[in-house]
Every structure is written in structure tokens, then in C-alpha cells.
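Quick one: C-alpha cells for this chain, please?
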Amino acid sequence: MTSNAAGTDDARSQQASLALKLCLLNVGAIVFLQRLIVPLGANAGVSILLPLAAASLGMLILYGSATIDPRRLVTCLLFVSAAAFANLFSGAEFSFGSVSLLIAIYMLLTIRIWITSQEYTHILRFFVGCTLILAGVTLVQIGLQAIGLPMPILEWAVPDLLIVDNFNYLQEISWRSGLYKPNGIFMLESSFLSQFLGLGLVVEYWKFGRPLRMGLLGVALALTFSGTGLLLAVIVLILMVLARGVDRKTLILLIAAGLVGLALLASGYLSATLSRVEEFSREDSSAYLRFIAPVSRIMEFLREPDLTRVFLGFGAGAIDREIGFAWNPPVKVLIEYGLIAWGLYWLFLASMARAVPSSMIATALALEYLLLGGGALLQPPIVFLCQFLGFGYAIVTRDSGTRQG
């Protein structure tokens, strides 16, 4: 009897260890391998993160360290079935690859991994460590350009065949300046670097509160010259302060933010950044396309005279052909798959929000996915970051084997 109990504990410990290792592997890949693809020929490819996540989650199910959540499965099947039906029977032109990718990515999100609260904290600490490396790379990229040297990029070491395209990887800080926004080498573009640094900052504040790490992440975030990560950090940190109250971590954060703000004001960076507020009124600006245009596009869609298009959409990939900009997931689902699939999509997202390990970190990830991450619907780095950093877990008490959620 005792031997069997000991064997059960050992097996559970090994399963937990496997879960932790595979989760850390995926988090590291999301940060450092997000630009890499598996070539499929004819200039086609799939993000390396997709087969890695599928293999990892499949292995965890096989070894009893993960399970398919029934509520997520039902709502996801309803959503992807409605999306496939809309494309097949609406008569609209659609991308078969987009529909297939949608099904492949979102069916993986129905899986929940059993880990302990200590292991979840370890995953968060590891993610912060990855973003600290990105912060260091950011400073190096800025520093080298400051002394007249070229900014290192991933193409120096990896052939183009293995790198995803269609992203604005190199962006000049200003027109014809010859100086580029840092992209962290491994990030798809500077906005991704900004958002990952912003997430690293809020996770560090909420879970650990180490002053030097918060300071380094804050400085690197400011030097990305991209506003999305800064907006993410400001919104979520305000929510966190309201939830936690003013404690030692908050005072340290406020002092550090004040010092960084003074330095940026003295350098002229802050005034240049604030001047970008006018972009919200310019229809060709990133700010307008990211925050204003989606609302206008939804209202325009709801006034569509063809009810077939309202309920079944214009076909997968249709909205991407309208303008050269990646629309946020709610807009993309509504326009391409129609009102029915859109309602089921929100039902699926509601099932994802149930029993998450940290509601605050989940809030930050949701903000990143729904609004700030641009075309995040079919972007494995953003979707799988949500899965492996906040939404993909069920906390288990190892001693008793009790599973929460």
C-alpha cells in the first residue's frame, strides 16, 4: 500500500516536471523563435511555434499532465464549425489556409495543463528573464547605432527561407534618418518588442517587484519608440495598483517611473512621443488604424445591405486585402466569418477566462491579444503566449492531487 502511494507521488512529480519543462520550452520559443518558420514550399510556411505547441500539448495529454477542457472544447467546436460553414456556404472567396490555421491554433487552446502554483510562478519568472534578455538586446541595438555601427538583425545569422515575412521588421525612427527602431533581433517587429517588454514589466511588478529588473525593462520599453507596449504597461499597472494598493513595490515603481520620465523629458523623447497623439486623427497613421478604424469598420459592416454577408461574412482573408494593416481579432472574425461565428467566438473566449491562475496577468494578455497585438487572431506568438503564460493552466496541489478549476 505504501509502495503504491509512493509510486503514485513519484509519477505525479515526474509528470509535473515534464509539464514545467515543456511549458518553459514553449515560452522560450515564443520569445526567441517567433520569426522562424517551417518551410512548406512555394513560398509558404508555418510558424515553428505551431508544431512545437501541438507536439508539447499532445505529449502532456499522453502522459496525463494535461486534459481537454470540455467547456472549451464545445465552445471552440461551435466557433470553428460556424467559421468553416460560413466560408463554405456563403459563396464568398476565402483562403483555405486561413481557415485551416484558425482550426489548428484554436483547437489547441482547449487543452489545459496541470501544474502547481510554484511551477506557474517559475514559468512567470522565466518569462521575465527572457524579456530581460530582450531589454539587453534593445540597449545594444540602440547603443551600436548611437556610435555609428549597424544594428544587428536576425538575417545576419539565419537564411531568409526560415524567416517569416510580411512584417515591418526594420522601421526607421523618422523618415530617412538612417536610424532604426530596435526590434530585439528575435521579435517580428518593434511593436512586438514593445509589447513583450511591457508584459515583462507588469509580470515583474505583480509577482516579484525587483527594482533593478523593473528599471531595466522600463528603460528598454521607452527606447523601443513604439507606443503599444507602453500603453499596455500603463493600463495594466494602473489596474494592478488599484487592486493592490500603494505598497513598497508600488512606491519603487513610481520613483523609477518618475526618474525615467525626467530623463526622457530632458532628452526630448517625451515631447516627441506625446506629439504622436495627433496620429489618432490621421487616417494613414498606425494609431488611427489600430484604435479608430476598427470601430468605424464594425459600424460599416453592420450597415451592410446584404444580410448573407452580415451573418456569414466576406470570407477568410478578405479584410486583410482591404488595406495593408493587420486588424485586431474581434474585427477580423466579424468581417470574415460573420455575426454568427463572431458570437460563438466570444462564447469561446469566455470559456477561456474561467479559472485562470492569475486574473491580473490574464487581463494583460487579453488586452494584448484583443486590442494591441494587431492581427493576433492567427499569430502563434501572441495566441500561444496567452496559452503558456496565463490561460492554459489548471492549478494542481501536488500533495493531494487536487485540481483547481
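Residues 126-279 form one domain.
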